Amino acid sequence: DTAVSQTPKYLVTQMGNDKSIKCEQNLGHDTMYWYKQDSKKFLKIMFSYNNKELIINETVPNRFSPKSPDKAHLNLHINSLELGDSAVYFCASSQVGEETQYFGPGTRLLVL
Amino acid sequence: SQQGEEDPQALSIQEGENATMNCSYKTSINNLQWYRQNSGRGLVHLILIRSNEREKHSGRLRVTLDTSKKSSSLLITASRAADTASYFCATDADNTGKLIFGQGTTLQVKP
Q: Residues A22-50: what's their mean pLDDT?
């Protein structure tokens, strides 16, 4: 059984479009994260939610809006996509009090 | 930038040899973690070392931490072709889960 899953795996879209990426974890964790990995493999945290509450919000354009309908899901909506948004987006989760994070397989976003 | 640095950026060795990767970071930390990323996959946690620890082992992995030099190293002994991957260090300064990742070392183990 997949612990942290993301959909879609690949996303190719035009500049200016709006798209969403979904993440689900079945580990019973309270905390979920979104990371962005660029073409040089540089990995940076974007957001973190604990039990549906936003706790980390890095310097990310407000075109990016995370939404957590429940503690097992954290979705990422991106408005007005730009070329520079092309990257791999990873969702991760962890349990409160534990430092290890469990990553999803990634969503490869290509903006044309 | 808070980003840590890893060195070397790329490493190519023969199966059976040892691989050593180094990580330097900039701020004080609570713990430092190492993750592996196989090509086209997500990251997998390998090992965590806390700021009050100096060395830790897990199977063929050995991690050291020198907080005075703000550096860590990951040693993989008796490497295998399956160890081919990118390896990232990540620091956690305040136990918020905000991990700051290094740039990664790409390891190739030739059979």
A: 94
